[in-house]
Amino acid sequence: MSANGYEKLELFIDGEFRQGSEGKTEDVINPADESVLAELPHASTADLDEALAAADRMFPVWRDTPAFKRAQVLKKTAQLMRERIDDISRTLTLEQGKVYSEAKVEMGAAIEITEWYAEECVRAYGRIIPGRMPGSRSMVLKEPIGPVAAFTPWNFPAVTPIRKMAAAVAAGCSVIVKASEETPGTCIAMARCFQDAGLPDGVMNIVFGVPSEVSEYIIPHPAIRKISFTGSIPVGKLLSKMAGEHMKRATMELGGHSPVIVFDDADTEDVVKMVVGGKFRNAGQVCVSPTRFYVQENKYSEFVSKFAEIAGAMNVTNGMEEGADMGPLANPRRLDAMAGFVADAREHGADVRTGGERIGNQGFFFQPTVLADVSEESRIMNEEPFGPVAPITPFKEFDEVIERANRLEFGLASYAFTTDDNKANALADKLESGMVGVNSLAISLPETPFGGIKDSGHGSEGGIEGLEAYQNTKFVQHWMA
């Protein structure tokens, strides 16, 4: 830990925390005040070769380690993360910007994920299939897939990496993680917990560099057998193509543009409180954030007014300050994107009920923004906003809103609010997304699958599906001698 309370930034290769061999670095910026937190070392080609060699060498060792012992390492890792939660959460807020209370919630989720995989890895059961003839036995075995290359974004520096780190370790795989260069400290801090918990040197490696250069180097490498990526759709498609060229399994958790359907039988006040909290969590920089609000006509005016009232009263400030409701955006790119979305919506006739502007000129702060009467032709209704701007539009009938909700190529998450159980069941059936929340935004839990369909990706993290993503299925037909 450095003097400013931020994690010491290092590569983690073959059990050693160290600097890059060629001395190349980049600054990590605090989005609240634009100060330099630390210099992040980049891995050279030689460093990447060392990480690949370590992962390749240690895979058979970790593969053959009993699941019970792998579970012990994961449990100890979770314990150490819990003991260090205050320090790691501070690092998370400093580098990413979200309010400290949210950072602690995220770290709590990361700990739960680690604990869940510790429990699940000892239950990675195969099965016996009854033989067709006497003296035969048909067996299905689950085996670790091999060394993994994992790539993670900047918006959730704890939860996104740990889903891949814990799952790979639980399954018996070695792993190379390239976390975001904008938010590296949290992942490094968690890697220290793995090391201190007794994970053998070389099973986990953490590298940083120019993202395209790192991915293009390690994905085709013959040692790597599995790719896991969380990030944008364009990059996900590029990495999927690269993995496909080498016949490597890939999990892709990509962008979303989640519709929120509010029917007139729902309690407007309760729904607004829930969705405002969900919309502006992490300043809207959440792949499953509620992003397109469709409200039935009878409740539309009331919903918009209450939404704007709560959003306009939010305290937007440095995430480390007491009483902060929302912190800054993670980088200046998001400021430009928000300004562009708001300007385009206005041009298409939207009414800005609150917000719509940058706050100050230091730090990447943007007002919580509510747009009413938003045209379907607006960019914000067609492109993932990934920021604190909420577009709201009315609808009349069930079939109409289902068609509007499903019309995009995104398919990560959808939400709906109604007190009619028949309508709720129909929504669950008809909404085209990998995850559906009915009367709830809580769709991400350690024990449940997390993933999308259509352009939002394929495969799941979390749940038994998240463990199976790192396993091969082997069938054995045994005839008794």
- Spatial sequence of strands, sheet with the most strands: 14-17-18-13-12-19-20
Largest sheet: 7 strands, mixed
Relevant CATH superfamily of the largest domain: Aldehyde Dehydrogenase, Chain A, domain 1
User: Average pLDDT value?
Assistant: 97
Gyration radius from CA atoms, angstroms: 23 Å
Task: Give a description of the structure.
This protein is α/β, with parallel strands linked by helices and about 475 residues long. It has two domains: about 10-255 and about 455-475, Aldehyde Dehydrogenase, Chain A, domain 1; about 260-445, Aldehyde Dehydrogenase, Chain A, domain 2. Helices cover about 40% and strands about 20% of the residues. It contains 14 helices and 22 strands. The protein has helices spanning about 45-65, 65-85, 85-95, 100-120, 160-170, 185-195, 210-220, 235-245, 270-280, 295-310, 330-345, 400-405, 420-430, 465-470; strands at about 10-15, 15-20, 25-30, 35-40, 125-130, 135-145, 150, 175-180, 205, 225-230, 250-255, 260, 290-295, 350-355, 360, 365, 370, 390-395, 415, 435-440, 455-460, 470-480. The strands form six sheets. A seven-stranded mixed sheet has the order 14-17-18-13-12-19-20, with helices on both faces. A six-stranded mixed sheet has the order 9-8-7-10-11-21, sandwiched between helices. Helix 13 (about 420-430) links the parallel strand 19 and strand 20 (about 435-440). About 55% of the residues are buried. The mean pLDDT is about 95.
